[in-house]
Write a structure and sequence with these properties.
Length: about 450
């Protein structure tokens, strides 16, 4: 009876509790796995995430963004110039000279005046400040484009280094097989000690290359972290799985030779020319007189027997200033000619850089195709060597063919990196790096 009770109470009675504990433990385990997966995902940033972080935190982008804010404040100042500047001047006389027959003597004078006011100058000054804001926006976009090109280059290099590291691991495995094979031949007396040393040294060369690739990856990641603006204590790594697709955004094939986009520099030079033309207009407007107005009380020292307020309206017009204003018009016209010449030089330089970048892209594409053909040839030779090994030929021939194929793959990775970097440069010149992330309209009213 006691055993029966123990069986019922010990196993059957406690079974639901144990089952509940098992379910809770399993749920906690799933939550722990999901939390660790989420933490791992949060600790890895792809290219798009890095761009978003850099636009918010990178000091390389903050400087030019703050310049836009300064130009906006200048615009507000120009809008304030539509209203005249009003000046209040007061005088108080604690000790006045003795006077006879003064009526309603005052010990003070009050003067509210509008200084020289020209609404046309205020209007065209605002237009110039708006152009300066647009110029600051384009300058900021150029900084972003250069920064995205550097970040994209780093991601492409990291992705290529990761692939090269995989190739080196397979080369190291081939070197180990070669070393084992040569040692066995040496034990049988069919290989010399020099051949063993050669096999050992080949393995050391592969290990040294792997160390070099690891150091290059560490250096690139540190530089990328600094550029993005990540803090040293943030354990964030980079997700390279979609890096190349996010950087290059491959789509429909494009014939870059049929177009010649307008660079940001050319647009900036066009704004500078327009700005200089408004400078000429402003220099001419400064020849016009300025409007003045005032409301004032009588001066108790200079006037006696007069009460009330005086209202006056007038014009200020310097009749002689050494012909400085006339020379300023000639100066601004000369600066306009200089801006036009500089713009033409910038446009010519951009066309030269564009053609050079397109030619480099075409050459890199041809070199990449050649490398692919070499990999395919090495793969065929590797298959041929494997069949010969199965037919009784030495293993060293098959290992040499496998090594040649892996080295051809490493060369292909290098050529693909050169092609991707050339394509990135062309996309940067075409202005396509910035548009997926920011728009010029974000900063313009």
């Amino acid at each position: 009876m006691r055993d029966s009770w123990n069986r019922r109470g010990g196993w059957l009675g406690q079974g639901p509790a144990l089952l509940l504990l098992g379910v809770i433990a399993g749920a906690l385990g799933v939550v722990s796995v999901l939390a660790s997966a989420a933490t791992g995902a949060a600790a890895r940033a792809d290219f798009d995430t890095c761009v978003s972080l850099a636009l918010r935190h990178s000091p390389y982008f903050s400087r030019s963004a703050l310049e836009i804010e300064v130009r906006r404040l200048d615009e507000k100042d120009s809008k304030s110039d539509y209203l005249p500047t009003i000046t209040l001047r007061t005088k108080f006389y604690p000790h006045q000279p003795e006077r006879a027959g003064a009526v309603n003597q005052r010990d003070y004078s009050l003067d509210v005046a509008i200084e020289s006011y020209n609404p046309l100058v205020a209007h065209y000054s605002l237009k110039m400040r708006q152009l300066l804001t647009r110029l600051a926006v384009l300058s900021h976009l150029r900084v972003i484009s250069d920064g995205l090109r550097q970040m994209g280059t780093a991601f492409l290099e990291l992705e290529a280094l990761s692939r090269l590291a995989g190739v080196q691991e397979r080369l190291l495995e081939v070197s180990r097989r070669q070393e084992t094979y040569v040692r066995r031949l040496a034990e049988l007396g069919e290989a010399t000690p020099l051949e063993v040393r050669v096999a050992l040294q080949e393995g050391e060369v592969v290990r040294g290359e792997m160390a070099r690739l690891q150091a290059a990856q560490t250096r690139l990641k540190a530089r990328l972290r600094d550029f993005v603006g990540l803090k040293a204590e943030e354990p964030r790594d980079f997700d390279l799985a979609q890096g190349r697709q996010q950087v290059l955004r491959p789509g429909e094939p494009r014939d870059w030779t049929r177009q010649e986009p307008r660079s940001l520099e050319a647009r900036m030079e066009a704004i500078k020319k327009e700005l200089q033309s408004w400078n000429i207009t402003l220099a001419k407007l400064r020849l016009l007189p300025g409007l003045t107005a005032a409301v004032q009380t009588p001066d108790p020292v200079a006037v006696t027997g007069v009460r009330g307020y005086f209202v006056s309206v007038g014009l200020t017009w310097p009749i002689f200033d050494g012909f400085k204003r006339l020379r300023d018009i000639s100066r601004q016209k000369t600066l306009l000619a200089q801006a036009e010449a500089e713009g033409a030089a910038q446009e010519s330089d951009f066309r030269s850089r564009w053609r050079e970048a397109v030619d480099k892209l075409q050459a890199a594409a041809a070199t990449r195709e050649l490398a692919r053909s070499q990999v395919e040839l090495a793969r065929i030779k590797e298959r041929q060597a494997e069949l010969r090994f199965q037919g009784g030929e030495p293993l060293s021939l098959a290992l040499a063919a496998q090594r040649s194929r892996l080295e051809a793959e490493a060369q292909l990775i290098a050529r693909e990196l050169e092609h991707d970097q050339a394509l990135l440069e062309v996309r940067a010149l075409a202005g396509e790096l910035v548009t997926p992330y920011v728009s010029e309209k974000n900063w313009l009213p």
